[in-house]
Structures are given as structure tokens and as C-alpha cells.
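Supplementary Methods, section 5.1.

A reviewer requested that the exact input to the structure prediction be made available. We therefore reproduce it here, unchanged from the version used in the analyses.
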Amino acid sequence: MIELDDFDRRLIELVRRNNLEPARILADKLGLSISAVLRRLRRLREEKVIVADVAIVDPALTGSALTMHVLVRMKEAGRRALDAFARDITRHREVTGAWEVTGDDDYVLKIQVGSMEEYDAFTRRALDEDAGVLAFKTLITIRTVVEDDLSARPLLVG
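The structure derived from this sequence is encoded cell-by-cell as follows.
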């Protein structure tokens, strides 16, 4: 566990929102010198607090406007079966998130596609044909309210 002070936490929040913000602007917002900000960013990356600098893409503009969350229940709950499914499901471009979970279901998948036809093709290829899958349930996203990767458009209330 790495020690993070208030400056580190505020810096992390700023780069989570925009990792291309120039160091001089980050320094102004934090009340630190540019060199202090750069040192902190380097340390946070070296210590794997910041694990990646990524671009968040608008799915509506890339042909993947439909988001589904799929609850998957496996026939067997053994480690070998779960690991095999986890390894296989990552090979499908439609899967943009996958979590092994507790409870009645074994996995939650986040699927992004451009149409229901694409989703149907995905489920046939990735889930129906997987002998280890017992059942799955699809939840279709109506709108995104909050998403940790900040790709959601802000929900305006009022």
C-alpha cells in the first residue's frame, strides 16, 4: 500500500478527468511547482497507482452505442472452469468489461455493440457455444448515470 497525501489524491482526481492537462495547469490548481507535480506523477506511475494513460472513446461515435450488462452463470464453479471462461471472453471485441462476482451469477460482462443483431451474434458465438455457460441474463442500459471511467455524459438535473 502506497502512502498518498492530499496533494496526491487531488492530482489523481485531476488526471483521471484529463490526463493531458499540462503540468503547469495542474501545478496552478494544486498550488505546487511544476517540478513537484512532475515528480509526483512519475512516482504515481512507477508505483502503479496510475496504471495507464488512456483515451475514453464515445461509443455512439464509433458504432457501439448499445451497452448491455450480462450476468453469466457457469455450470461449474471450479477455478479451472472460471479461469477458462475469463481467458476466452476477453477475446471478443464486444466485451469492454468483465468481472468475476459473488452471488448466484459468476460473471458480469459489459458488452458494447452497434445493434441488437450484433448483440445476438455475440451471444451465439461467445455464450451459447461455450459448453461451460449454464445461463445468462441480459440487462440493456437505458442511460448511463455515472461511470468510473468518466466516459458518461454528465446527468443534468434541474
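Confidence is low (pLDDT under 50) at residues 150-158. These observations are discussed further in the main text.
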